[in-house]
Amino acid sequence: MLMEEKLVVKELEQGKELANQLMNSLNNPSSSSKESNEVLISEILHCFENTIAMMMNLDKKALKRSHERSDQSNKKRRMLEKKKTEKVNICIGSGQEGTLLDDGHCWRKYGQKDIHGSKNPRGYYRCTHKFTRGCLAVKQVQKSDTNPLCYEVKYVESHTCDITQSATKHSLPVSEEAEQKLHDAKHSDDTVQHMKPEELMLSIEDLDYKKDIFRTFSFSNHEMDDDFLEWKDLMANLSPTTSESGITNEFHVSPTDDSCFSSLETLLGSTPDLSWM
DNA sequence: CGTATTTGACCTTG
DNA sequence: CAAGGTCAAATACG
């Protein structure tokens, strides 16, 4: 069984367990509150959301594989499928090493490679939510040969998980520090004004990428992956939207509403295993 | 014990 | 065939 399939089974088992809890709760109204039932319902819905997202990701992969097998002349396809990549050169001042910062996303290292003609190896990172949310964001980080304080960061695909994780724990490479500066600089003019020139020097090669970074940090993705939008629409349809049920009217979700998760988050409060929301 | 990183093997591409 | 990219088992870490 594939890793993703195991996660799907795990998620469904959790959903089953939660449904059982809800059933017990409904059978014993005296020992349960309306609020606890609402939390259970939300968690069950959350399991569905996760499972569907994972299945869509699996389906996408399977389709891709079958196409690759059947399509003999797929050169044009490959040209069209070429992944969106953005390159960023980041230089940091000497006094900043050792400070743990993040770029608002959780990255997980999945490989490192010595690059022909380069002194420093290249690190390969993918989004932590690759399997749980189907986020395809990937980045490559390589220390510059000429300037040890400079890093070449290549982003492949943008995040579809739409999550910022600045308050969570991180184990990031040094280069992440510079990236945080990059994002901070974009996010706040004050930051730029107060930053000494020797502390931060950024070189962005692509203007579109600047926009992308800002979009990520302002919590609004306006150019999201088609599949993700499709998934969101599906979620919106699955989630109760009427106020008649009484229980569920607190998490009304419209298909065009970017904050479809935040309403659930509000309802669920600090439920530990929903912290990613 | 669960999660993240390391690293050699394997796959893909030119 | 070489170089870059990814996978996954082993290992480290909190």
From TrEMBL:
Q: Does the keyword Transmembrane helix apply?
A: no
Query: Record's InterPro entries?
Result: WRKY_dom, WRKY_dom_sf, WRKY_plant
Location comes to: Nucleus
Entry's Gene Ontology molecular function annotations: DNA-binding transcription factor activity; sequence-specific DNA binding
In which domain of life is the source organism classified? Eukaryota
User: PANTHER family in the record, alphabetically?
Assistant: WRKY DOMAIN-CONTAINING PROTEIN, WRKY TRANSCRIPTION FACTOR 30-RELATED-RELATED
- What name does this protein carry? WRKY domain-containing protein
Q: What is the lineage of its organism?
A: Eukaryota, Viridiplantae, Streptophyta, Embryophyta, Tracheophyta
